[in-house]
Amino acid sequence: MTDFEKSIKYSLTSKNKFIDHKFTYDKTGDKLYEELMQNDKYYLAKKEIEIIANNKELILNSINKNQENFNLIDLGSGSGEKTEILINYFLSKNANFTYLPVDFSKNSLDKLKKKLMGNYPKLQINPINDDYFKALSLINKKYKGQKIIVFFGGNIGNLKNENRITFFKKLNNVLNINDLIINGFDLIKNPKIIVNAYNSNLFSKCQANIIDILNKKLELNINKDNFEYFSSYNPISGMVDFNIISKIKQNIYIKKIDFILKLRQWEVINCGHSKKFTMQVIEELANISGFKIKETLLDKEKYYANSIWQIEKK
Questions:
Q1: pLDDT tens digit sequence for 191-220
Q2: Spatial distance between the Cα atoms of 267 and 243, rounded to a whole number of angstroms
Q3: Are 78 and 142 spatial neighbours (Cβ–Cβ below 8 Å)?
Q4: CATH-assigned architecture of domain 43-188+278-311
């Protein structure tokens, strides 16, 4: 079985059914997400772009001046719209760096490389289509110089609490004392603003596309109309959950993994979540993971934060 097939069999046989968020990307999904980022109510991308654009000089000045070359590592690069703001500014200041976008979606990486090579012919760019830590292991072996990791888009919020700590501790282990991480955190705010960001027809289309991916990769013919696509926000936990809900009782035979998916009426399949943070939780997360916060940058309305972290000690 492929990694996808193994993951799907494991997740859909679990007591609480789910689909791993990293397997929900394809060309259609990439396009839908790019459209979502332009949606007026989906504030996350706009606020982060505001922060990066207003602080690009500060970010460049945070990089160790003694290093001749540095590596700009973009975890979950997607369309690269936010990182391109930094790339444009860094090149204008004659900074010597290599851009290393890392993403699960080869389609996104191919499009990103084509776009950036057209806009910046002198840019050194080497996309990596792999798991984050496999990519970082490769980077450690192949590239010398300071590492500047950008983890934009609030992607850290897609991890469960325990996985979030593990993720940063693993990052700490592969970084050196002068390396930096710039994390994106969506902040706690009026719950109505958060709910409106995720309850749009476009976001429902992103969720419905997961059924299309299952149909394509597992050679199925699941009817998307037999499901509701529903996002919910819990202001106590600060968690948004993305769910696919079966409107009818269904038995779906998946031949490729020799498994019958049995769904009760109104049974939920979780397809991911997005954690919203307080400043206190961000500080605690940095401390417990062995980092110190160098600077935390906010947008005007304090909806979003980009926090610059450095390793506390080795």
A1: 999 999 998 888 899 899 999 999 999 999
A2: 10
A3: no
A4: 3-Layer(aba) Sandwich (3.40)
| Residue at token pair 């397809």 | 271
Q: Helices 279-288 and 161-174 sit at what angle, rounded to 10 degrees?
A: 50
Domain ranges of the chain: 3-40+191-275, 43-188+278-311
CA distances from 202 to 57, 65, 299 (A): 35, 44, 25
Cβ 291 vs Cβ 311: under 8 Å: yes
φ, ψ at 170 (rounded to 5°): -65, -35
Dump the DSSP string for 150-206. Answer: EE-TTGGGGS-HHHHHHHHHHHHHH--TT-EEEEEEEBP--HHHHHHHH-SHHHHHH
Q: What is the CA radius of gyration of the chain?
A: 20
Characterize the bridge pairing of strands 239-246 and 268-275. Answer: antiparallel
Task: Give the residue among 271, 282, 123, 267 at the shortest CA–CA distance from 188.
Answer: 282
Task: Take residue 22 and report the two structure tokens written for it.
Answer: 């990293």
Instruction: Show the CA angle centred on residue 248, arms to residues 202 and 235, nearest 5°.
Output: 50
| Mean pLDDT in consecutive groups of 10 residues from the start of the chain, 314 residues | 89 93 79 86 94 96 78 91 95 94 89 95 93 87 91 88 90 90 97 94 91 94 95 96 96 93 97 95 95 96 97 72
